[in-house]
Amino acid sequence: MATHRPSPWQRIRRKFRAEGPLHTALVALNSILPRSMLDVRVWVVSSTDLSTFLDAEIPDDNVHWAGMASDDNPAPLGGEHAAIEDRLARGKLTVVIERDGRVVGWEMFAARVFVKEDWLRFTVRDREIYSIRIFVEPEYRGQGLAVRLASFAYRELARHGYLRDYGVTDALNRSSLRAHAKVRHLPVGWIAYGRCCGFTVIKIGRRVRVGFWLADNPLVIDFGTFDDP
What we know:
This protein is an alpha+beta fold. It has one domain (18-227): Gcn5-related N-acetyltransferase (GNAT) (Aminopeptidase, 3-Layer(aba) Sandwich). The protein is built from five helices and twelve strands. The chain has a nine-stranded mixed beta sheet. Helix 1 crosses helix 2 (21-32). The longest helix has 15 residues, at 145-159. The N and C termini lie far apart (57 Å).
């Protein structure tokens, strides 16, 4: 049976409804004007206490750890053939969910250091992780798959002694904010910046910094900053 594919206009309308007009307009602006020239962002920093998922029941046996061929290729490289610590030590850890024999959703985590932008790094402390991205194929959205992915990952990570997960979400992206709320991600701070040709004014919580950061001289933000009173 042929699969109906939405038209470009239908995809734009869905994105507009899910993510909101401001976020959609910003994405459109960045498609015209390179972010290397002008970039304005407001992010919500949130965190989850992984211990609250220790006894979580996951109603799906098609959720499992997997490898990634690249950041753009969510195809699993195999099942549980390596320890969680080993995968995180090698860079990234991915959990996937399958339907009808194919991957339809995935979430990726990192430990220690994550490159958010070419000029910006985030760091986490020992036994903490950073949620890089969660993705569910459009035709499978609205079925709670993102919650199942996160709940499985949080439960297994908690059982391995990990304490907390951090995330950074576009404050204008309504769908991402709703998804984070469903897995008990509580806001702990804000990051806002304006950037023009490398010159950056950035507010991290209550602190404002001004500088010229590039790939060979990046700004590093420790998530522990947001735990301080």
